[in-house]
Write a structure and sequence with these properties.
The chain has 191 residues and is α/β, with parallel strands linked by helices. The chain has one domain: Rossmann fold (3-Layer(aba) Sandwich). The protein contains 5 helices and 10 strands; from the N terminus they run αββαβαββββαβαββ. Strand 1 (13-15) and strand 2 form a beta hairpin. The radius of gyration is 16 Å and the shape is globular.
Length: 191
């Protein structure tokens, strides 16, 4: 998606020797709602024929993107929580997710009442690097007996193994901006 690539070039900041791409001024801290709207439209263009009944993401950065996409699909959005709260009662689906950004392992949870075998699920997330978050969400979908139609990713670090690992499972992954390489001196190169 040219619009997203241009925004990454203009406002993205590369840190930690080329390991981290900060897009927090428009994608995952401060939100450019017009950009999110275009992202939602693009995910609908890519997956609109898949008869999606639910969109699943993980808290927190994926929620806004998933909600805008959910408007185009006209379906509910579920987000996997990283901790169980008092307002979740009953049984849950769980999976472990290692956060590349935070350097932590989380137990993610989704209440069973919101996801079942009748659902056709689209996963949405802001980043794909090592694939841990997506693998965790995939496990939740499998535990529910639901059908996974694919994953919509805003930014994929194609030089890290996540995309290949997920695609290697036969899962359709559509990334709007695929980064081939990045460095603090050379900037970002797209695939």
């Amino acid at each position: 998606m040219k619009l997203l690539e241009e925004r990454i070039q203009k406002d993205g900041k590369i840190r930690n020797g080329g390991a981290v791409l900060k897009v927090d001024s428009f994608l995952n801290h401060q939100i450019d709602v017009k950009l999110y709207n275009e992202i939602g439209k693009e995910f609908f263009r890519l997956f609109g024929d898949e008869k999606v009944t639910k969109i699943l993401t993980i808290e927190a950065s994926g929620i806004g993107i998933a909600c805008i996409a959910g408007q185009y699909f006209d379906v509910p959005v579920i987000f996997a929580k990283k901790s169980k709260s008092k307002n979740i009662d009953g049984s849950v689906y769980t999976s472990k997710v290692e956060s590349f950004t935070h350097g932590k392992v989380y137990d993610i949870i989704v209440a069973r009442e919101f996801l079942g075998p009748e659902d056709r699920v689209l996963l949405i997330d802001d980043f794909l690097a090592n694939g841990s978050a997506l693998n965790g969400l995939i496990q939740v979908v499998k535990s529910a007996g639901a059908t996974l139609v694919g994953a919509g990713i805003c930014v994929e670090k194609a030089f890290q193994p996540g995309g290949d690992l997920i695609r290697g499972q036969g899962i359709r992954v559509e990334s709007l901006a695929r980064i081939e390489s990045m460095s603090e001196t050379e900037g970002v190169t797209f695939c």
